[in-house]
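To the wet lab folks,

You asked to see what we're planning to order before we commit. Fair enough. Below is the target structure as tokens, and below that is the sequence we designed to fit it. If anything looks off to you, flag it before the synthesis order goes out.
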């Protein structure tokens, strides 16, 4: 199993930046990918960024955050980051990190393990 704990959420004005962190423990060496998702109340969960945890570290971003957010992780697969720049009020959400343990889960977005989330509020 993999345990995930997010941190770094908070309140920021539009145009500002935040960096979210996700501390991973447990069977982290077996992860194939890790990702960030967000969800507002009453809305569907949205996958926003993904990184494969192999040496290549291929990334993917949703159009809504491309060019503004950057996903990264350490080589030990114990910490995942999401650098968020040029934040907009519509980025206000609960943000979750997740770990995928096989290619199928990474491709489908149906990850195996989830954190409890951290909240981001962006004010105009």
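Sequence we intend to order:
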């Amino acid at each position: 199993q993999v345990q995930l704990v997010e941190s770094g959420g908070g309140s920021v004005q539009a145009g500002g930046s935040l960096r979210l962190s996700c501390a991973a423990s447990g069977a982290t060496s077996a992860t194939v990918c890790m990702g960030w998702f967000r969800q507002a109340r009453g809305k569907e969960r949205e996958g926003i960024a993904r990184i494969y945890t192999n040496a290549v570290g291929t990334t993917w971003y949703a159009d809504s955050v491309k060019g503004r957010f950057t996903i990264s992780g350490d080589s030990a697969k114990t910490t995942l980051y999401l650098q968020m720049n040029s934040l907009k009020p519509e980025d206000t959400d609960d943000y979750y990190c997740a770990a995928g343990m096989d290619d199928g889960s990474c491709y489908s977005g149906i990850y195996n393990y989830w954190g409890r989330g951290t909240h981001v509020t962006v004010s105009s």
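Structural context that might help your review: The mean pLDDT is 95. The two ends are 40 Å apart (CA to CA).

Thanks,
Computational group
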